[in-house]
Amino acid sequence: MFSSATSPLFTTSVLMVFMASWCVPAGRAQTYDRCQLARDLLHKYKLPANQISQWICLVRWESNFNTSAIGSLNSDGSLDHGLFQISDLFWCDHQQGMDSACGLTCESLRNEDIKDDVICAKRIFRQHQHLTGNGFNAWVAWRLHCQGDTDSYTADCNTSSSSPSAANDSSGADRERKPQLAAQPENPQQSNSNWLWSPFSQAFPTGWLFF
Length: 211
Ligand SMILES: *[C@@H]1O[C@H](CO)[C@@H](O)[C@H](O)[C@H]1NC(C)=O
Ligand SMILES: *[C@@H]1O[C@H](CO)[C@@H](O)[C@H](O)[C@H]1NC(C)=O
Ligand SMILES: *[C@@H]1O[C@H](CO)[C@@H](O)[C@H](O)[C@H]1NC(C)=O
What we know:
three-stranded antiparallel beta sheet; Lysozyme; mainly alpha; single chain; disordered C terminus; about 40% helix; binds 2-acetamido-2-deoxy-beta-D-glucopyranose
């Protein structure tokens, strides 16, 4: 009697655990959609509008938009982590993160939350801006692939924001280049459901909904 009473409950909890592990992609490889990344870097993480295509080019050649990428091409044996392929030689560490310049663990640079990645990338950029006059010099892939015209990396992306407060943000330059976008009819659903959009092109990460 006891076992027959607990059996449905047990089945339910097993099912829930299974569904949870299925929905939360812990450490699973994720590919950030290129144009979504361009929009997020511009609107969510406030990178300058005139830098976006260079960041997209950099990410294309560093991680190919793989948020969990881990690179091992460095001759000194160090590893590069995440979307921006941030090095564990200095910027992140594998223990508590305390001793690293970004105060992060390298593992946290390989999850799908790129907020800490962007903060760290900005810090790296600032340091190299100070050292060399151009922050992008910190990234080998940028030096190899992104020093010329990078417009093609975002040319097909709609980077305009649906939020009215963005009317005066740095994306203004983009809209001036594409004035026809303003003539598009407004989709009233879009501004409401915007936060539900998955930035990843592969699976739908339910974990994202909690941000
Ligand atoms: C992303 O990087 C991880 C770690 O290197 C790798 O296991 C995974 O296959 C990559 N995903 C894609 C889509 O390339
Ligand atoms: C671009 O995105 C904005 C905001 O989401 C939207 O209002 C507009 O219609 C879009 N334009 C095109 C051409 O898709
Ligand atoms: C946008 O900025 C311009 C000047 O930069 C200002 O005149 C205008 O009032 C601003 N519009 C809004 C909606 O804040």
